Request: fold
Amino acid sequence: MYRVPIFLAFMVIGQAEAAEPVSERDVVFASPDKTDLQLDFVRPAGDGPFPLIVFVHGGGWQIGSRAEYREAQTGFAKFGFASATVQYRFAPKHRFPAQLDDVTAAIRFMADAKKRFRIDPERIGLMGGSAGGHLSLLAGFTDIPGCKILAVVNVAGPTDLRTFQSDASGDAALKGALKRDSAGLLEDLLGSKDREAKVYATASPVVQIRKGGPAILSLHGTADNLVPLSQAESFHVALKKAGITQRLKTVKGGGHDFAAWPEKERTAALLDVFAFFKEHLKAD
Reply:
């Protein structure tokens, strides 16, 4: 669950001809606990309104930076998407649902200022990896006044915290990076070791699935030792039962780190992400 770098290098699918994107960095969108939370916003040149993609970084809910997706923002802007990378409060100082509240607050902030940002709040997508994927899924199934989330891309995020457990090598990697194994990260995030506690269900995207929810694309490596593939598989079974438009793309031998996937598979996954948002957010 450490940071998963996802560099959307769009030169691999061809660079669209367009004017330089318009950027706003370090925009304060909320100040919970007297702590300023910031987002970085990028949009294409022009009047819009543009569909909006919100990127949520990973890091075990404890570390990470919104800068993880800056390269992705530039790439998406070239193809007609506005985007924002958002900051959120970290566990264990801040327990769930602080992280989800921060992501949804950022979305509300931009929707309320839609003329400033030249976005269409009726065409919103989310994308995140690992913990960021988990938060993106939860936000996707959250009712946000004045907004419509149409699509979510989840890269190896846990979907059922009641059963989530890294394997032995994954827990060892987590301890090396964060000094906590997967169970410890959940305890830090949720404030309880009890998997039967209500908060574990509340914080599990699989429990929050509802009819009419956003389309979901999940990317997951078959050799992920931090978030087992079974998390994605069971989640997509539940999505299908609920009638949600969904697709699970697996990469044979791929681990938790998207950037370490074989180049061919990684490029194919990026093409799928772009096509998915293009279809469901109806970008020009």
In short: The radius of gyration is 17 Å. Residues 7-14 have pLDDT under 50 and may be disordered.
